């Protein structure tokens, strides 16, 4: 998927461009700059088989006239041939990856969030058994170079809910690029599993894995980006700002087709319209979180303000280039004053001041960030909106935000944390559940 727009769909899909977001999704591969399409899951929750794209299910006017002269068996044979050609082309172009939301269009980001919402609603109302079993008989490797709580729990439970098996490989099991090259690791592990979620150190590591892996790669966190966390934040915002989501489950007679119905209804949600003009104010260190904020949120209509002290307010040139490519510089405010960033804020956000690997800088950083702790007094003095809400990706330290804000009625940190599960589940379903390995 592109940061600006996805490449045009292939000719086989041209018959139904209006239903593209509902039927297929084009993704751009970082290393090859290629696109491919993946089919959706069948409408009925009980049917786990891949569904052919809607372009093959719905005939255009010309095709209908031509098919009127063919027997039903001949029509079916033609469809099978087109589907086989479609799958062969898709497999030749390699597996889909999620390395950063900068690679995805605004429409594709929104589609993942709506998918996560549907999974959450169905599982909570009708139980996990009504969630499509798209990872049945599939294994997902969780390769983590760094420690993790929320990401690991969310990932393992997501794979299980989709009917698959999660294999955790920690730093004691696998040291990326140490005993074996990243290329070899991607090739070998990828030959034995159906997908890899990698929490790495340098972003170049996950890019190398994606370049050589024969299966989909999901970035669980790198020093440059953290895409699954921002998806969870977006789901939290949709739940917060949508006036009434109860319609998603109204008048559904039984659980059997619940997912299909809820998923279709969720597609009607206009996420950019919900978020348009909302100010997302981040006070803290510029890091992978702030990077992912600025490459994704402005494309969904939000304004992003970032306040960091001198020396800690630098945006990586690679990240800023993605912002420029998207043409969203005008929606981003960079300042060293928390009060400026917090003025008119709808969302007040912070993150750790001391990331993993920066422990030796603790004293220096705590000194530099004095005055950046989020308190009700600072937020109200700065002129935030009356209904502002607080977000944090966790884990939280008291230096960043005091208890009054963190545990207060405006905080949505715990629903935000839970939503990691539902958005990771949606990513696994979209990338690994719908993709088939080339044979």
From TrEMBL:
Catalytic EC class: transferase
Compositionally biased region (Low complexity): 55-68
Pfam families documented for this protein: OTCace, OTCace_N
Highest taxon, organism lineage: Eukaryota
Gene Ontology CC: mitochondrion
Residue span, Aspartate/ornithine carbamoyltransferase carbamoyl-P binding domain: 97-239
Keyword Transferase: yes
Protein's name according to its UniProt entry: ornithine carbamoyltransferase
The organism of origin for this protein: Trichosporon asahii var. asahii (strain ATCC 90039 / CBS 2479 / JCM 2466 / KCTC 7840 / NBRC 103889/ NCYC 2677 / UAMH 7654)
